[in-house]
């Protein structure tokens, strides 16, 4: 609920702070006293566009603040707008600078203003849908339909993306074929580059290996000749025959070494011819890696990928078939839930029409008729203000007073589930009086059981229903015009003034007391 409204340097107001209570508060005052300024301030706080003209003459900054109290959570919400005489505009939520959009979204949850030139919540399609679904008991069906619709839309987007990807591939078909031919020609194997690098390093060192083997081979050959000579001489010397066996073993060892070095030399000769081929192969692989910015194994995987893409480029993929099946299933589910939803809504619409039209009758608006138009899943609230006229969308109503009473009739019906805590009615008594005004006051009082009501009124028959009565007073002297608001602890005199004019007679006071008593027992 709105607990406090603070206005500083606002048009004719220096400093004004008004505290509000729960239930129904009425604001009254003489014509031109400044009641409209309060509504104007609330409209600005609700997010209406404004300019430096609201800054009081001679002041630098106008500051407007509304404090809302949540009786359930026991927390407060502060909404502030500051407008400078340079036209700068700043919005604050609980002391934090925020965009105007944030203020609008926050205030939409906290307050509805019903009056001339204000946008009514009920004009919005989503609100009309919520009201119908409440009466139809179809909120769950609506949520299910919305969920399925989102899933269907997302699936359709996924399918279109897959189709687009396939078309994009088709446009790249020649390029992909070129890539495939290039990579097939390369015939790259997994880990081939790493293996070739190791082989090249080995081959690059073969010259040194060959030199070392040649050294060993030549030395072995010389040693072998000398050992053969020694053996022949020892066979002739009986005193040294004990060494013959060991020297013969050495001769066999050097003969084996000579054979191994000979084979190694032949092997090296064959391998040396491979080094140029290995180097050339490594260079080819490096060029492809640099071109594609991929590793050896990434290139192998990429070839497999584009080969698969080219195979399926003209055919729908398995993923597309799966999504198509999903879309068909969702469409069937949506069709079923849509039929159920529309059927329920039509029944709920009749209930809502009857309830609202009964309220029009209570408010002596017998010529006004309310109708709900349901076309598929689209819903439109229509109003006919005179018999014989065509029904027109409710937002086309131009008469502020008429609209306010229509909104009052609607609010009386939907008050049980509308969660907006504060409702403000301005100019609701335009063009009415007497019995009808008393009925309007009674309706407002009934709504105030579930909502905080602020009502600016010119009619005593409405004002008597207020739990709290605030009087707006304007004073003027040679220096300035000022506006203040004071609480009418005993509203009898103000009610009498509203009934009888500036001169408050005893008759007017008696009439005021009578009205107050009737309102308390009605």
Write the layout of secondary structure elements.
Blueprint: E1 2-10, E2 13-19, E3 24-28, H1 35-45, E4 61-70, E5 75-84, E6 89-93, E7 96-98, H2 100-110, E8 111-114, H3 125-136, H4 139-171, H5 173-186, H6 192-204, H7 206-234, H8 244-272, H9 275-292, H10 296-312, H11 318-362, E9 369-375, E10 378-384, E11 392-393, H12 400-414, E12 422-426, H13 434-447, E13 452-456, H14 460-463, E14 468-476, E15 481-487, H15 492-500, H16 506-521
Parallel strand pairs: 3-13, 3-14, 8-12, 12-13
Antiparallel strand pairs: 1-2, 1-4, 4-5, 5-6, 6-7, 9-10, 10-11, 14-15
Distance between the termini: 26 Å
Helix content: 55-70%
Structural category is alpha/beta
Mean pLDDT: 86
The main sheet comes to: 6 strands, antiparallel
Shape: elongated
Strand order of the largest sheet: 2-1-4-5-6-7
Q: Stretches where pLDDT falls below 50 for ≥5 residues?
A: none
The share of residues in extended strands comes to 15-25%
Rg, alpha carbons: 48 Å
Q: How many E strands?
A: 15
Keywords, separated by commas or semicolons:
6-stranded mixed beta sheet; 522 residues; alpha/beta; 16 helices; 6-stranded antiparallel beta sheet
Could you explain how this protein is built, in words?
The chain has 16 helices and 15 strands. It has 522 residues and is of the alpha/beta class. The strands form three sheets. Strands 2-1-4-5-6-7 form a six-stranded antiparallel sheet, covered by helices on one side. Strand 1 and strand 2 form a beta hairpin. The two termini are 26 Å apart.
């Amino acid at each position: 609920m709105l607990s406090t409204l603070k206005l500083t340097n606002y048009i004719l107001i220096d400093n004004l702070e008004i505290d509000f209570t729960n239930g129904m508060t009425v604001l009254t005052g003489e014509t031109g006293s400044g009641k409209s300024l309060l509504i104007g301030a609330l409209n600005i706080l609700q997010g209406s566009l404004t300019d430096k003209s609201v800054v009081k003459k001679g002041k630098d900054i106008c500051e407007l603040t509304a404090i809302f109290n949540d009786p359930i959570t026991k927390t407060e919400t502060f909404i502030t707008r500051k407008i400078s005489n340079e036209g700068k505009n700043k919005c604050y939520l609980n002391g934090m600078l925020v965009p105007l959009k944030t203020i609008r979204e926050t205030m939409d949850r906290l307050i509805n203003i019903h009056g001339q030139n204000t946008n009514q919540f009920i004009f919005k399609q989503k609100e009309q849908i919520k009201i119908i679904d409440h009466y139809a008991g179809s909120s769950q069906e609506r949520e299910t339909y919305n969920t399925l619709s989102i899933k269907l839309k997302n699936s359709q987007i996924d399918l279109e993306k897959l189709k687009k990807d396939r078309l994009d591939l088709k446009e790249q078909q020649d390029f992909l074929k070129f890539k495939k031919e290039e990579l097939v020609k390369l015939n790259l194997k997994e880990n081939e580059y790493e293996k070739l690098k190791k082989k090249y390093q080995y081959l690059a060192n073969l010259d040194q290996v060959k030199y070392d083997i040649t050294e060993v081979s030549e030395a072995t050959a010389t040693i072998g000749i000398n050992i053969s000579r020694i053996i022949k001489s020892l066979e002739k010397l009986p005193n040294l025959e004990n060494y013959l066996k060991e020297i013969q073993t050495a001769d066999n060892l050097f003969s084996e070494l000579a054979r191994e070095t000979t084979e190694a030399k032949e092997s090296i000769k064959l391998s040396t011819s491979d080094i140029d081929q290995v180097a050339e192969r490594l260079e080819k692989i490096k060029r492809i890696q640099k071109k594609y910015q991929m590793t050896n194994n990434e290139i192998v995987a990429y070839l497999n990928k584009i080969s698969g893409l080219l195979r399926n480029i003209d055919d729908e993929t398995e993923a597309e078939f799966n999504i198509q099946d999903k879309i068909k299933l969702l469409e069937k589910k949506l069709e079923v839930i849509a039929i159920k939803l529309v059927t329920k809504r039509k029944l709920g619409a009749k209930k809502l029409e009857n309830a609202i039209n009964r309220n029009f009758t209570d408010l002596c608006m017998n010529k006004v008729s309310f109708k709900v138009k349901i076309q598929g899943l689209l819903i439109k609230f229509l109003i006919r203000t005179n018999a014989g006229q065509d029904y027109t969308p409710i937002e086309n109503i131009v008469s502020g007073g008429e609209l306010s009473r229509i909104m009052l009739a609607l609010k009386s019906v939907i008050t049980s589930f509308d969660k907006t805590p504060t409702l403000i009615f301005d100019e609701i008594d335009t063009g009415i009086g007497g019995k009808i005004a008393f009925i309007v006051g009674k309706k407002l009082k009934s709504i105030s059981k579930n909502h905080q009501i602020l009502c600016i009124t010119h009619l005593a028959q409405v004002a008597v229903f207020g739990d709290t009565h605030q009087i707006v007073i304007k004073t003027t002297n040679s220096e300035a015009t000022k506006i203040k608001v004071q609480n009418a602890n005993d509203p009898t005199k103000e009610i009498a003034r509203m009934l009888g004019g500036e001169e408050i007679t005893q008759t007017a006071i008696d009439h005021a007391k009578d009205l107050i008593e009737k309102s308390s027992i009605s």
